[in-house]
Write a structure and sequence with these properties.
The chain is of the alpha/beta class. The longest helix is centred in the N-terminal third of the chain and has 14 residues. The chain folds into two domains: about 120 residues, Rossmann fold; about 70 residues, no CATH class. A four-stranded parallel sheet has the order 1-2-5-6. A two-stranded antiparallel sheet has the order 3-4. It has eight helices and six strands, in the order H-E-H-E-H-H-H-E-E-H-E-H-E-H. Strand 3 and strand 4 form a beta hairpin.
């Protein structure tokens, strides 16, 4: 399994489209002498895992997509919430010398404790002693706000099909995947899907610790 780099630490952040990022994963494999790998990703990372399979099928032995589906998510409340949080981050003054003040602003603007913890972990201190986000905030915000075909929230049909093995896993009450409307989208992109309880399944129960981890 090829694990992705941490948010913001990649040295290739000039674009945020699945074509370039899939090529970046293939390049990473080549540089590290990894001939084939199973791709696993959560959310947007799950779409990227599928994109690697579509563009570099010869390098991919399987794909696991956690809490996501190959479709346009921009209309969904959960992704609109994320975009709102990114917009709010742009209003936080990162030039303050007190870390506590930035954390206080973050708590005020980001109500979801899970997203607040994730975004808090992206606060870093530069060599000059100033605080900054360790990911390209403006680039992410513009991409998620664009609604264009290459948006990370979308799934462009031009990416084609993934013909290998696939597994979709998500919590029973996912905010991102709905079996009633999203199963067809999965089957249109992933030709080997066998259906519910085999390659497409939910982890039952809100108290299931795995269910909670998938939402983080």
């Amino acid at each position: 399994m090829l694990y992705p780099r941490n948010l913001g630490t990649s040295d290739r952040t000039g674009t945020l489209n699945y074509t370039d990022m899939a090529d970046d994963v293939a390049r990473f494999m080549w540089e590290h002498k990894i001939s084939t790998a199973t791709m696993a990703g959560h959310g947007i990372g799950g779409k990227l895992a599928l994109a690697v399979g579509c563009y570099h099928a010869e390098r991919v032995t399987g794909v696991m997509a956690l809490d996501t589906a190959p479709l346009n998510h921009s209309y969904m409340e959960a992704y609109q919430e994320l975009n709102g949080y990114l917009s709010a981050l742009r209003s936080i003054n990162m030039n303050r010398h007190a870390h506590a003040s930035i954390v206080s602003d973050l708590k005020k603007h980001v109500k979801c404790p899970k997203w607040r913890d994730i975004l808090h972990d992206t606060i870093t201190k530069t060599a000059s002693g100033e605080f900054a986000w360790n990911f390209p905030l403006d680039l992410w915000w513009k991409n998620l706000s664009s609604g264009r075909a290459e948006s990370l929230l979308n799934w462009n049909s031009s990416m084609g099909l993934w013909v290998g093995k696939t597994m979709f896993a998500f919590p029973e009450h996912s905010r991102y995947v709905y079996l009633s409307t999203h199963t067809l989208a999965m089957q249109k992109v992933c030709t080997q899907l066998q259906g519910f309880h085999h390659d497409i399944f939910s982890l039952q129960g809100d108290e299931n610790p795995l269910s909670i981890s998938l939402l983080i």
